[in-house]
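Sequence in, structure out. Go.
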Amino acid sequence: MGSARPNVDRTEKQYDIIIIGGGASGLSLACHLVSSPLRNSSILIVEKSPQARNDRTWAFWTQTPTLFDAATCRSWHSLLIASGCKQQLLWLGPYNYKVIRGDDFTRRAHELLSLFPNVQIVQGRVDTVADGPAGVTVSAHGQDHESRYEGRWVFDSRFNLSGFHPDPAHHQYLKMQFLGWEIKSPNAAFEPQTPIFLDFRTPQRGQLRFFYLLPYSDHHALIEYVVCTDDLLHRAEQEQAITTYIREMLNIEDYNVVATEHGINPMTDYRFRRRTGQHIMNIGIPAGMLKPTTGFAFTRIQRDSAAIVRSLVKRGHPFEVPASRWGYLLYDSLMLRAIAPHGGRIGSLLAFLFRYGSTPSILRFLDERGVPY
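Output:
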């Protein structure tokens, strides 16, 4: 006898907006919607696991408030860069460098959305998204049921890294692999007023490799190891690099690892599609919201969410959103071309730029706000 089929909910529930994925881009868009004139729209979020998860830490610089400032765990006005024997303290001018932990972000978003009974979050894995003349049908299954939902607009944040294979003849593509350890030490081991933004004091081995350190207190910090590569590192090699960094660069012997995070982000000049159907729009990574040369995405997601809402309010559709200007796209492509064969030298170049350039101007440029192309 075959296994029992899950129950099928044949009722097609109607929504104004369906968001696939409850990560940073999906929850950000939902929060921007309920903070706008569209706050009474019926909104469905389909999420594989709607519980708060501390699997990602969002660090970003900004000079304007965000909807998630209440979830910020630390904020700084200066950063440190280390390369070779030199260390440089960077004053950020009008910017603050903020950190939001993944579980704090999710809880804050859910708290905000819970104030609106027209917002529903369901757990399930989306099987099909079928566009039609008047809207979209989304089919999803949970542990013991299947459901179908009808939406006027669908925003899709799903991205499959293993299935992403841009044509190497036309596009640059590297992987930004990261492993983070959140550690606590019984001793005062960290300078809580000075996060390390970029630390290139680790063997490069022909690739761009660096650490960054976010001190939550003098006893508690997140240490992240980042490698930009074609060939992914084994977990043991990443862990050994972090262990060596903590012992030799930070001079810490006594500590406990209280949490970990890891992942892989695409670094590519591939032009992701925004509109994938008459009523379907990509958001998040499949919309190109991850800056390919830096890995930063949080403020880009916030700006994009705000632009989508403006388009819906003013135009009645979500598609009138600004695209990256050609100058920034060219810069990203050229940088990726340089990192691929010369990654081991890029750290020295970046340190040089920050040493002799204006930090606010560089941050403005990296934020795609500083060059008038």
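Check: The first strand starts at residue 7 and ends at 20. Confidence is low (pLDDT under 50) at residues 1-5.
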